[in-house]
Amino acid sequence: MSPVPEPEPTGSLELRVARQGGRHVIAAQRHQGALRLLRPVYLDSSGQQCVIVVNPGGGYVGGDRYRLTAEVGEDASALVTTQSATKVYRTAGRGVLQEQRFIVADGAVLEVVLDPLIAYQDADYLQRTSAVVAPTGRLVLTDIVTPGWAPDGSPYRWRSVLLRTSLTRPAGEPIATDTLRLVPDEDGVAEHGFLGRRTHLGTLLAVAPELDRDAVEEVHRLLADREARVDGLRAGVSPLSSPGLAVRVLGPATEPVHELLLDVHAVLRSRWGSQPRLNLRKY
């Protein structure tokens, strides 16, 4: 019996960023279906390419499949972001799958700072992210999960949100595996206080040679200070097995979670260069 072929993705995007002389440029790109790139921009004087991914459809629905692949060559630098929040609507039947693959060469920097994921009532979303980072490469990944609108006004009406992230070295040596699974009906996230009034959840994963124990302590101090000043905010940081760290933030709204992750990101940038705190200028 012949195997069932994989369905064509709803949208796919592949890009490769390379260093050419003193510039960082998109050396190759390919897109299909409902994913596009806006024209790259430069947000500061570093020459880093800022690549903005666009979904013209406006949101994800049942059965959608998306693939994003980004490769950053040796000594090149790229920032990948989205034009707006990722909205996952009611997914009757099959859920939504988003696959992301990132490759970071030696001396390269890849920062993936996405707008929030908004899960509406009856949404079923799976995101699989894999990243291969060379020993002197630098990677930052952020995600924010937020509840979408529901007719009864309650915040946890999605069916399932599952984010799986795997970080490895080029030879296959594992760096970290992170799984975030939120199933309100099974987990009782509101009743058990896992989220409660802290309705927004942010994650930052970073790998870089400069992210030693001292960097983890600096981030810890930042998180503790912010917790003391912002009501309803909770955050923590852990070191990874290779130089790197993982941050998780719970907050009452998008803005305090987003701003805190940007502040952590700024600390990381200061460790390996002179770029300022990120300002995406979207709003």
From TrEMBL:
Location of this chain's protein in the cell: Cytoplasm
Keywords: Chaperone, Cytoplasm, Nickel insertion
A Pfam family assignment: UreD
Annotated InterPro entries: UreD (IPR002669)
Molecular function GO labels: nickel cation binding
Main subcellular localisation: cytoplasm
GO CC term, one of those recorded: cytoplasm
Protein's UniProt keywords contain Chaperone: yes
UniProt function note: Required for maturation of urease via the functional incorporation of the urease nickel metallocenter.
Entry similarity comment: Belongs to the UreD family.
Subunit relationships: UreD, UreF and UreG form a complex that acts as a GTP-hydrolysis-dependent molecular chaperone, activating the urease apoprotein by helping to assemble the nickel containing metallocenter of UreC. The UreE protein probably delivers the nickel.
Name the UniProt record assigns to this protein: Urease accessory protein UreD
